[in-house]
Amino acid sequence: MKTIEVKTNHPYTVLIGEQLLPRTAELIKDVCNYQKVAIISDDMVADYYLNTVVSSFSTDKQVFCYIFPHGEQSKSADTLLQIYHFLAQNQFTRSDLIIALGGGVVGDLAGFAASSFLRGIPYVQIPTTLLAQVDSSVGGKTAINIPAGKNLVGSFYQPARVLCDTNTLSTLSKVNFSSGIAEVIKYACIYDRSLFEQIQDIQHANMTDIITRCIQIKADIVCKDEFDTGMRMILNFGHTIGHAIEKHYHFSTYTHGQGVAIGMVKMTQLSEKAGLTQPGCAQQIIKLCQSVGLPTDCEIDTQTLFDICCLDKKNLNQSIHLILLKEIGTCLIHKLSHSEFQAFLNQSKDNQL
Ligand code: GLY
Fold first, then answer.
1. Are the C-beta atoms of 62 and 123 separated by less than 8 Å?
2. Which of 184, 220, 232, 240 to mutate to test the pocket of ligand 1 (most atoms within 8 A of CB)?
3. Got the DSSP string for 132-182?
4. Arithmetic mean of pLDDT over the chain
5. Which atom of ligand 1 is nearest the CA belonging to 235?
6. Angle of the 239-248 helix axis to the 302-310 helix axis, nearest 10
7. pLDDT per residue over 324-337, tens digit each?
8. What's the N-to-C CA distance of the chain in angstroms?
9. Atom number, ligand 1, closest to the C-alpha of residue 233
10. What pLDDT, on a 0 to 100 scale, did the predictor assign at position 313?
11. Is 70 in the pocket of ligand 1 (CB under 6 A)?
12. Which of 210, 191, 194 is nearest to 202 (CA)?
């Protein structure tokens, strides 16, 4: 088992390894002196893993479970309210504990419930997707969606512990697994050339080592900029275009990771044209993405992309921060006005990205 310390204002440990779920109670026993634990999960993850986690607790703990339907539509104010009712009915106090067992939706929603119920009760993240293990479970971003947009209501609230059991990756679909790999490629591109080499042969790579390296990178970045006002922005490499693509296709055609893969390629092609990135990087990213079944191209015109990126409620009247590679393994934050961003996008041929 590997261990990483995340040295934020409230420091915590991330444990990465095989067969951690059956040891859940033992691995979290020191996080606080809780009597009750609420395991929050979705119906798909619960089918696979809930019994294993529940069975790890001895009878001196009271274990409660709240299970909601899987999918992004559950990351809502309605589900959040139901979780508050559930915690209140079962008389949870600030000395009890919440466990988020699942992927990004579960982690974000249960994390936000933990941060706001009674003004904050401790919680543990048990991410069961690759994307949640390498990204969303670490760093303390919690959120729900509202009709105006995704993740518009949330908080920074660090978990008390994170358990990444790599055995849970065996039940992921190919698409779900490769979407997680997109975030792994992102870390390699922005921070670690040797990780980029290591994932050339991902089928034979040691996933515990890969996940550990990604979490170490994230922990380094988050410790320097916990509240996302500067350096943490580099974690958004590929996300500006990726998010616009997801949104343009109504979050139904491309998964988050697939959008990020296309975003990393497009952004790097444009920054190579602008002379800001070493030539050949985009081609290396394309080759790696294609080798793991990630898309690298899609139909979207530059004006649509510009509108989605800049006319978004969060960006109105503001400049846009692009994350660009200098070369594979190092990046920079490039701040542009909206008109400069438009010119940057219009370097593409025929106004097609
Ligand atoms: N997922 C990007 C971040 O945590 O900042």
1. no
2. 232
3. IIIIITSS-EEEEEETTEEEEEEEE---SEEEEEGGGGGGS-HHHHHHHHH
4. 95
5. 2
6. 100
7. 999 999 999 999 99
8. 43
9. 5
10. 60
11. no
12. 210
